[in-house]
Amino acid sequence: MAVPELDAQETEQLLADHPDWSLGREGKAITRTFQFGDFSEAWGFMSRVALLAEAQDHHPEWFNVYAKVEVTLTTHDAGESGGLSARDAKLAASIDALA
Amino acid sequence: MAVPELDAQETEQLLADHPDWSLGREGKAITRTFQFGDFSEAWGFMSRVALLAEAQDHHPEWFNVYAKVEVTLTTHDAGESGGLSARDAKLAASIDALA
Which residue stretches, if any, does this entry annotate as coiled coil (chains A, B) (predicted)? Predict the structure, then answer.
């Protein structure tokens, strides 16, 4: 089932609401990089995000190396071939609340 | 402090011992991709690897999207500008033992 994709105005609002995220993949995703003091801190953050992701049934694409975590949010079921949806806005807000 | 880099013969032995890993980054890293049934399983695996990494004080570079985990092992302190070391062989063996 396709999820409604954010239109241009909604995407602009998402970025305005979450200024630490930047648009990527030709507008189909948002990304934020987090830098922690060490792996233990980074992992603690990732563990909290993992719980959010399961609770929201919406999961990040993410990369971790030691104290750095790069989080990318996109909705594979949005639009024709993936894009941003309200699910990404919700998860971004939840992640921002942790950081 | 530089960590001794594996020589060609040692690298060959590493790949022979751990056939599920493939050489990448011009011989400076090894990678293995794991596919699980869902995020919960993938996260359980990642949590176990995180504990190994802290215990061995050697951490993976890894990417996760839902049920897939791509693990890359390299030693930033090895050789002139990073490469494979005995630390990668040890962590690969520990990860293989989980999988």
Answer: none
